[in-house]
């Protein structure tokens, strides 16, 4: 029980910055979908997909390598890894600056190379600060980590509001002709949705303010022998992460290309991409839980040596992680009838609402996969993780190519779900062979099926029941089932069953 409390405490600390910050960031969906049409936001959906993939190439698994080897000599590996990251980041960023014009033309956005320059700088800052942030996690300096992340998020939100809810309406004349005449130069229409990139870039620069001490402690240290050792460990992690992120992002990259013209009546392929990409963001609630947990669990199970990070505790933590994620899956899926009107301001975006329960479940399985993947990192069998992820990637790509022309963006959602389930099963099989842990597999399956029944229950209830009640009745039944199964009452107090 103590390990649950400890990890729950750290997860909540990281979760405070992650959930509060991402939730505030998520509120920007309201701003973006109000300010721009789906086709206008298509460039952001596509380019941010590439950013997510490029971030992995920029750090090439070194963050996980740092957790794995820092316990031997924290300062030494901090300097070696950060030296390598700064060197390669400088090279990658220079190449993007030089090739910005041809790259943007190839992506279908000619004369927009300024966007790629901003993106290159965003990537550079993210990669250079990744290891200092990892150091804060390893040293359990949660407050500093949280402060840096939240401050950057607030800056990003503030700039988005300024650009899109103040400067843009003034330029468009919504606040009167006089203000339009005096201040219309504050907004440049040709940049449009590019202001989202600009706000992100300025916010990222604030990281250097918070990480001043971590960079003052840094000295360039190049050690080919150690670097080769790190690369051998890290590169399979990179390929695994690359395949995993491609698994998450390639549906958005393929959808616009593979969707037949006129598939959705009155909608272009760019509209469909914008609808899918912004509805996808409603699955962020599951991603928040996964990310917050990873921040605390990865250093705990990889970077520390203690009596607590045992296989039994890993299984216990995974069991409760699944339960929490199921509540998130049910909570969002059962309340889409009112969440959609709050977060997706234009009704055109509501057309894609059906993908959200599927994507939430897919992310749930992906979270389980991340949890149980500790074995190949501890046993230095990261190549097996790469193989599993590549298989999942192949399923996603195949599903999208085969079924997008027939089923549209629902094919993308179900392909991702199939991939996440298969990866979880393969990872579980491999883990039980090389480093067995007593996972509660039967209970996990039972809870997921119960969650599915809770989501489907409203479809079979009488119409006269108030919608808020009918939609959430299944969650109440699930909670009762959970309490009866997991808890016992002793001396008037609830306690976990053993």
Notable traits:
globular; 23 helices; mainly alpha; 498 residues; Poly_Biosynth_Transport; single chain; two-stranded antiparallel sheet; membrane
What is the straight-line distance between the termini?
A: 10 Å
The overall strand count is 2
Mean pLDDT over the residues? 85
Number of domains: 2
The low-confidence runs, each spanning 5 or more residues with pLDDT under 50, are: none
> Which class of secondary structure composition applies to the elements?
mainly alpha
Order of helices and strands: HHHHHHHHHHHHHHHHHHHHHHHEE
Instruction: Please tell me how large the radius of gyration is.
Output: 23 Å
Strand fraction: under 5%
| Largest sheet descriptor | 2 strands, antiparallel
Strand order of the largest sheet: 1-2
Helix content: over 70%
Q: What would you call the shape? A: globular
How many H/I helical runs? Answer: 23
Subcellular location: Cell membrane
Keywords: Cell membrane, Membrane, Transmembrane, Transmembrane helix
Transmembrane segments: 12-35, 47-69, 81-103, 115-134, 146-170, 190-210, 230-250, 273-293, 314-338, 350-370, 382-403, 409-429, 441-458, 464-484
Protein name: Polysaccharide biosynthesis protein
